[in-house]
Design a protein that fits this description.
The chain is an alpha+beta fold. It contains twelve helices and 22 strands. A seven-stranded mixed beta sheet has the order 3-17-14-19-12-6-9. Strands 1-2-16-15-18-13 form a six-stranded mixed beta sheet. Strand 10, helix 11 and strand 11 form a beta-alpha-beta unit. Helix 1 packs across helix 2, helix 2 crosses helix 3 and helix 8 packs across helix 10. It is globular and about 60 Å long.
């Protein structure tokens, strides 16, 4: 189920503010503050009074025109964005000037409370410009999505009547969905959107109802509704039809070191390839994580989906219903010298009845659905931050992510940690030396007031597939 890790969310927030700080420094102050990101930022500022924070996040310059009052926003000139595809003419705006903050390295005053808010369009643009010297790449056309990302966009995937009936059913269902809750250190936090988990009858019988998430057994697991099952069949046929054109490759055993890495990079340059760890046979989705973003402010932060039951290199079919939202992805670049370096952010527009196929990308990419503006009337707002409401759902977006629980990664194969619950499977994403490997770790802390047993175990993918 695609949810953000609480620790990652807090660390990402602090990284945006303190660009020159190391991850260990930020993690230490976050632990010292017991998970309170605002307190952690204040502690860090006290310890490092001369630290240079990210220039473009200065939303409260103390200038003569604005005075020193808290809450006054400076006049910001919008950057010229790189856009591919068709753009609604009514949403065009002036793009002749760039941010003053991107042109200058001068000192500034930052409101800490303001900086710790969820990222706005301004902060996102500035963050990317600072990290990669490029603005977000906006994609609208399926051919552009296929060219620039490991995803594939299929507009109007379902017949019109089925898409409409499924939307109505899921809007009604979403009224009973809840926000996930978990522990971050000694504090209980909740997700910024509601969700629910659906499973087919066959998968539920195979798993015996045993499904763990965030360190505890899932309480609300529902069977697929008839409309969901009909949509699942359409999506399954489409994905498997496209998947037949993807070529499976294997890494020659004699390659090692730089030659092995060069081979992997060379293969990844081609969109139509299949990873050797990808599931065998046809893709048969048997579960769906359902998410509801009730308003333009509801969101989910940067994360990659957990692999415990999906196994390595899973295929995920993400169906969007209702309001159009921006789906952002960024490649994680492992490096011993810069473990937190990330590539340019790519933003994909997902309209009603569109399917985004994520081809085996969870190990190398992170994704998010960020907060957006609720109205298109204020044309001074950057157009990609404006939500496009649906004529039935309004600002609500229903997201059904179809995925396959693999038999070789069922609960019976999952190691039990010292706390007595199934551990969680994760990929190595930030360490170059072990990038591409997978490990199990204890997740009990999410449900046990932040306390875990420290369990750790490497996964041997080849041995698991032979079992």
């Amino acid at each position: 189920m695609p949810k953000i890790s609480g620790v990652d969310l807090k660390l990402d927030t602090l990284r945006v503010i303190f660009e020159t700080a190391s991850e260990n420094e930020l993690r230490d102050v976050l632990q010292e503050a017991k998970g309170n990101s605002e307190l952690a930022a204040n502690i860090f500022l006290m310890k490092h009074k001369s630290i240079r924070m990210l220039n473009p996040l200065k939303r409260l310059k103390q200038t003569e025109s604005h005075g020193n009052s808290i809450g006054c926003e400076p006049k910001i000139k919008r950057p010229k964005l790189e856009i591919t595809g068709q753009v609604d003419e009514s949403l065009k705006f002036s793009t002749t000037d760039a941010f003053d903050s991107l042109q200058s390295e001068s000192n500034f005053t930052l409101s800490l409370a303001d900086a710790l808010k969820w990222p706005t369009s301004t902060s996102i643009v500035s963050q990317v410009a600072k990290k990669s010297n490029k603005l977000p790449l906006m994609l609208y056309r399926p051919e552009d999505v296929l060219l620039h990302t490991p995803c594939q966009l299929i507009p109007n995937i379902l017949p019109k009547n089925l898409a409409h009936s499924l939307l109505l059913v899921m809007l009604k269902e979403s009224e009973t969905w809840e926000r996930n809750q978990w522990w971050l250190f000694d504090r209980e936090v909740s997700s910024p959107h509601s969700s629910c988990f659906y499973i087919t009858e066959h998968a539920k019988a195979s798993y015996g109802g045993e499904y763990y998430y965030n360190g505890s057994k899932a309480k609300d697991t529902r069977l697929f509704l008839p409309e969901m099952d009909e949509a699942r069949k359409v999506i399954t046929d489409k994905v498997n039809g496209l998947r037949k054109n993807r070529i499976r490759y294997s890494i020659p055993k004699f390659l090692c070191g730089p030659l092995k890495k060069f081979f992997e990079i060379f293969i990844s340059m081609f969109s139509f390839h299949r990873h050797p760890f990808e599931g065998r046979g046809d893709w048969e989705p048997n579960v769906a994580a359902a998410n509801c973003y009730s308003s333009s402010k509801e969101s989910v932060g940067w994360h990659s989906d957990k692999l415990t039951y999906l196994g390595p290199r899973p295929i995920i079919g993400s169906l969007s219903l209702g309001a159009t939202r921006q789906f952002r992805i960024r490649r994680v670049v492992p490096s011993n010298s810069h473990p937190d370096a990330a590539s340019r952010i790519i933003s994909i527009s997902l309209p009603h009845n569109s399917l985004l196929i994520m081809w085996c990308m969870q190990e190398e990419w992170k994704h998010e659905v960020c907060p957006q503006q609720a109205s298109t009337l204020n044309l001074l707002k950057c157009f990609f931050s404006v939500i496009d409401p649906h004529n039935v759902a309004g600002p609500k977006r229903i997201n059904l992510t179809f995925r396959q629980f693999r038999e070789e990664y069922s609960t019976s194969w999952t190691p039990i940690c010292h706390c007595g619950i199934p551990s969680v499977l994760r990929p190595v994403m930030k360490k170059e030396a072990t990038f591409g490997r997978y490990f199990y770790m204890c997740e009990a802390g999410s449900a046990n007031q932040g306390k875990n047993c420290g369990f750790f175990e490497w996964l041997n993918v080849q041995e698991r597939e032979k079992a």
